[in-house]
Amino acid sequence: MKLVEDIGIDLGTANFLVYIRGKGIVLQEPSVIAMVRDSKEVKAVGEEAYRMIGRTPGNIVAVRPIKDGVIADFELTKRMLTKFLDKVITGYARFLRPTIMVGVPSGVTNLEKRGIISAVRERARKVYLIEEPMAAAIGAGVQIAEPTGSIIVDIGGGSTDIAVISLGGIVVSRSIKIAGNEFDESIIKYVRRKENLMIGERSSEELKVKIGAATLTADDTILTAEVRGRDLINGLPKTVQLTSADIAEALQEPVQKIVDLVKQVLESTPPELVSDIIDRGIILTGGGAMLRNLDERLRQATGIPVIIAPNAIQAVALGTGKALDMIPILRDALDSSENYLGR
Fold it and tell me: I need a surface site. Which of 2, 108, 224, 342 has the fewest CB within 10 A?
């Protein structure tokens, strides 16, 4: 048995997931790092750092070093990556370097690919990059090598990636920097406009999870939730009650942009593959796939069945791990550290 098993990573804007071959997903934590503002000393990463967002004293800052699906701060990302890998790789195995497969959004530039590889390479023998919709398809159980078309809509924290896959490759793909974080921001703006109330990122995310919806159907029960924040008129604490209808209204614009992008991808897809997609349906993955009635909204807009992957949140991470065993099949769909940094 190898002392260190190869690793798959979902380097997500919202969450960082690690898959170890032979063990499955061993880590799933928020992609957040907290540090001392002046000395840059790392105080916490992951769940512990996430709890600090909006609640830190002046000399400590909690940040997300990955923005819109790409690395915004390479140094902080390296430090966060090291801390996470230290949690899952222990003992003598720390001195060995695994092969690492990393999921990246569709359409990332060569410069961004080089940055991601550089951030990971220090802990790896070799690095492969796989586009997130391809990884999500593998993780969701799609037989990607078959000569039939499948469409994946992966809605993460920072980006939505859509791809039509056939014969082990991506035929058509699009990416948009609208996803879970944009949903949260839209809710913050709506509450500020409607209630004159300033709420934080965590409160917005809780509203989205508890009562959020992409649309409301005739059979839906109207859910309600309280949210606390600062009154923008007098600056005092204030509590208001919102409904699922409010959140559906708040999310109308970002959801519509995702729907429009799915339709654009379908319009660019060869007719033979569209026929397959009608039979097999649209597959939703990522945390954003869990937004209530998003599947129904897409079905109404496209006339195509929509399936939420049973492991939607973990699909990309599972796919990066399973892709380690499929490198010969995926070779044309992968980028590697050799292409960008040499051996």
Answer: 342
Nearest to 16, CA basis, from 339, 313, 269? 313
Q: Are strands 7-11 and 15-20 parallel, antiparallel or unpaired?
A: antiparallel
Give the DSSP letter string of 37-73.
Answer: TTT--EEEETHHHHTTTT---TTEEEE-SEETTEES-
What pTM value is reported for the model? Answer: 0.90
Please answer whether residues 168 and 332 qualify as being in contact, where contact means their C-beta atoms are separated by less than 8 angstroms.
yes
Q: What is the pLDDT of residues 245-304, one digit of tens each?
A: 999 999 999 999 999 999 999 999 999 999 999 999 999 999 999 999 999 999 999 999
The torsion angle over the Cα atoms of residues 185, 199, 75 and 95, rounded to 10 degrees, is -100
> How do 99-104 and 126-131 pair as beta strands?
parallel
| Residue 143, Cβ density class (10 Å: 0-12 exposed, 13-18 middle, ≥19 buried) | exposed
Closest CA to 227 of 239, 236, 213: 239
- Of 284, 317, 315, residue with least CA distance to 10: 317
How many Å apart are CA 239 and CA 228, to the nearest integer? Answer: 4
Enumerate domains of the chain plus CATH numbers.
Answer: 7-135+316-341 (3.30.420.40), 142-178+258-313 (3.30.420.40), 180-252 (3.90.640.10)
Residues present in the chain in total? 343
Residue 199 CA to residue 192 CA, distance in Å, equals 8
Return d(Cα 67, Cα 75) in angstroms, integer: 14
54-78, pLDDT tens digit by residue?
777 778 888 888 887 778 888 888 8
Sort residue 339 into left (φ over 0), alpha (ψ -120 to 50) or beta: alpha
Cα–Cα dist 13/56, whole Å: 21
Helix (H) / strand (E) containing 264: helix 252-267
